[in-house]
Amino acid sequence: MKLKKVHAYVFVFPSLFLTLVFGIYPLLWALRYMFYDYQGFGTPVFIGLGNFTRILRDHQFWSSVGNTGIYALGKLLVTLPMSLVLAIILNRKLKGRSLLRAIYYLPTIFSASVMAIVFFIIFNSYNGILNQLLLKYHLVSAPINWLGADYAMLTTIIIAIWGAIGNYMLLFLAGLQGIPNDLYEAASLDGANEFQKLKYVTIPMLGPVMQMIIMLAITISLKGYESIMVLTAGGPYGKTEVMYLYLFKLLFPVSGETQGIQQLGYGSAVGFTTALIVGGVTLIYFRISKKLNDVY
Amino acid sequence: MKTQAAASYPLGVSTRGKMLTRVGYAALYTLLIILAVTQLLPLLWLMLFSLKNNQEVFNLPPFALPSQPHWENYMNVWTSGNIGRYFFNSVLVTVISVVLTVLLASFVTFAITRMRWKGSQLVLGLFMVGLMIPVHSTLIPLFSMFLKLHLTDTPLSIILSYVAFNLPTTMMILLGFYYALPREVEEASVMDGCSVNRMFFRIVLPMTTPVMATTSIINMIYNWNEFIFVNTFISSDENKTLTVGVQNFIGQYTTDWGAIGATLMISILPILLVFLIMSDRIVEGIAAGSVKG
């Protein structure tokens, strides 16, 4: 037993060290400065909870939180069921399944920022190919302003779904492969049909893995911002501004933006608040899903 | 022939039932193929686009081939910059980070799920915190830390950051699988006098190959495409990776659309090639596996 304990510490130490030094310590640094008025130069001025009262009044931030909710919900409500269904279909013996798996997974391997440039050219309202095609086949009478105020969020969600389906399909597939074949054989002997096997073997057995995958999906989609940054930069009129994009702009302001000054103190406070929101949502999900698991 | 086969089928599936299944399969395949085309179109369009000149980009239909492919777009982009160097840096940083991350995460996950020790839940909690840490708010403290350690503008700064920030996600994926691993194998190996190290490297790691492949790919893709860390920590051109290097080219060629297409293609080509060569292994290998109880 004693040997085991020493081993556990040896196994854990390198990762713990890296996480503490490169994750937790910078986090504490940021935590300290969220109580300061600090622009990155000069002396930081302690202002107590000043940054947080500012957050409460910061409409731009709260609208970015709302946008993040719409973005994540829109993305996950389509992506997760679709990828689960695809995984279940492509887990069966089906001709060409490995090719289909590869094709669905393909978008995942590309950089979000690079693909956002590609989609920017595709969804462009003036000479974008999507409008060109829609007009050519008379599906629309006038070009749709895909990146305008009405459709920008929809466009970003469509692109996010395009990029995410294959990823979750593959994770679900790996989970499906973890289910022992004996269970299916036993179910067959008991006369279960395909649907019953799905309901009584696949879904319950996939439970723990599914819980982890969905948790991962939630945090990832709440943190997503890179493709939006390239595609719309949060515009038009902040319609696609998500939490992490807003935060990024505070820490690394782009010249020409309304907030052209680097705000490390306020940025740290916003960073903390966004992390609280992501953590809170994840925790609520974890609690609910655990209860659901207990019921089964 | 077919009716005979149906008649000899043990459960007595009628030909009519079989027809329905066939229609069902046709519908299923149609849907699957439509989705596959949707997933492929942007890429196909980018490929065509990268072989056109400005005039063809605007005058030809989007999915029309150019009269003759303008390979010189690639030549121009390749010769006018450091793409070879960026490529080498991307490979170096990606490979080292992925190996370290997956190995270290396996260590931790094994220790948490398979050993009893004080603080295992606390450590798990710390990694969960790591999952929530916003990368941006750590950029500035990390930069000043690397500056003090004389690590800014070195590949090491990037590798350390990648490993640290990918560990929690990697662990989260591994955890579910480790919990599902049968304990009997370990118990048997302990009974046979197997040491912890031996058990881990000889039994547990091979059993988790499929999930390690999954996490390796997720890590590889993340590291290859990562932008923010490289952009912040690396200042000299010779240490930049492909994603950051490519952004320079886009800036340079704002009026040459073919060159923009070629640049985008080059930045995704290496990982696309790896994927095309290994997709069977990657996708099938992840799924088919030894995790079965």
From TrEMBL, chain A:
Cellular component, GO annotation: plasma membrane
* Limits of the ABC transmembrane type-1 domain: 65-285
Coiled coil segments of this chain = none
Q: Which Gene3D superfamilies match?
A: MetI-like
Tell me the InterPro entries matching this sequence: MetI-like, MetI-like_sf, UgpAE/MalFG_permease
| Keywords for this protein | Cell membrane, Membrane, Transmembrane, Transmembrane helix, Transport
Membrane topology of this protein: Multi-pass membrane protein
Write out the GO biological process terms.
transmembrane transport
Q: Enumerate the transmembrane spans.
A: 7-28, 70-90, 102-123, 151-179, 200-222, 264-286
Instruction: Quote the CDD domains the UniProt record gives.
Output: TM_PBP2
Protein transport as a keyword of this entry, yes or no, is: no
Subcellular location(s) of the protein: Cell membrane
Q: Which family does it belong to?
A: Belongs to the binding-protein-dependent transport system permease family.
This chain belongs to the protein called: Sugar ABC transporter permease
Give the species. Paenibacillus kribbensis
List the top taxonomic levels of the source.
Bacteria, Bacillati, Bacillota, Bacilli, Bacillales
TrEMBL record, chain B:
Q: Name one GO cellular component term.
A: plasma membrane
List the subcellular locations. Cell membrane
Any single GO BP term: transmembrane transport
Q: Does the keyword Cell membrane apply?
A: yes
Residues crossing the lipid bilayer are 26-48, 86-110, 122-147, 159-180, 200-222, 257-278
State what protein this is by name: Sugar ABC transporter permease
- Gene3D superfamilies from the UniProt entry: MetI-like (1.10.3720.10)
Gene source species:
Paenibacillus kribbensis
- ABC transmembrane type-1 domain residues are 87-278
**Keyword tags:** Cell membrane, Membrane, Transmembrane, Transmembrane helix, Transport
Instruction: Tell me the leader sequence span.
Output: none
Family indicated by similarity: Belongs to the binding-protein-dependent transport system permease family.
Q: How does it sit in the membrane?
A: Multi-pass membrane protein
Q: Which InterPro entries match?
A: BP-dep_ABC_trans_perm (IPR050901), MetI-like (IPR000515), MetI-like_sf (IPR035906)
